[in-house]
Task: structure prediction
Amino acid sequence: ERDLVLQISSKEGVMSEEVEALTWQDYQKIQQISEGEAYLFITVPGFYATGDQSYDYILLLADFEKLDLETDYAYWGSHVREIMDQDLLNDDALQNKSMPEMLDQEVWNTETEEIALQDCIAVPITYMEEMQEAIAPAWIHMEWDSRKMADAEETVRKIEGYLEETHGNAFNYRIYNPEIELSNNSEKVKTSIQAMNKAGALFLLMVFVGMTVIFHLLFEHRKESYGVSLACGADSRKLWKEIFGEILCLNGLGTITGSGTGFLLTYYLDLQIMIGYVEVAGDLRTVLWNMAVCSAASFMISLTIYRKLKRESIVRLLYGS
Result:
């Protein structure tokens, strides 16, 4: 439903661990700029152990007005209700209450995680004032629906400007549309892959031409031995099989060595070569395709040599004239 999200990143060389990336006052100001369309929630991972039981939970700081929840309560998801009697919040002003069933079944998706509310303890967003220093930038999620803004571009510019002016010494702020960015990145990746495919096809063509020339030169040097074999009664089909076997062995050895080396380098050594967001890694299917191309090339080259051999008379083969 919301198509714009806020990205917060630390500036290089700046120790930002103890610097606040977003405060309650910032949220109020951003709500004012966006005319109440900002949707903020913060996810703080937590852990509690008692006896032989342990619980991983998420402390969810959310705008209760937008969720139609009462601000005097802390709402506990179904997976953490067993520890409702534990004082995990250190806030006597909030009373414990089970999360409404409809909300408890929801799963919120962000770009980096899925948040099952049944694993959460939901508290009002104002609680961020009490634990401001414990909130990491990566746990802050702020979103907007651009369709509900009178001028989305101007609103985004004002929000980014305000955040940079307030916290720009330690953080970078960017509001963007993940779907559009993914689409743009996909096009870049697609273009990169197409360029690599074309380069690969051109390289294979060059290799094929080179192999053809090499084996034809080899045939010219061995004309006399082929002539002797035929003069002694060797079957031409058997001779072709020998030629094909030799070419296949040479090509196969080179293909296996090259494919195996490439597979090991990209898969096992994990060089993390990146094209946009695609990681290049060894694939067994590529090795199988290489072997198929090797066999086809060997067959075509040996067939060409065999036809040339059939057209030559034994005398011309023996004396090279």
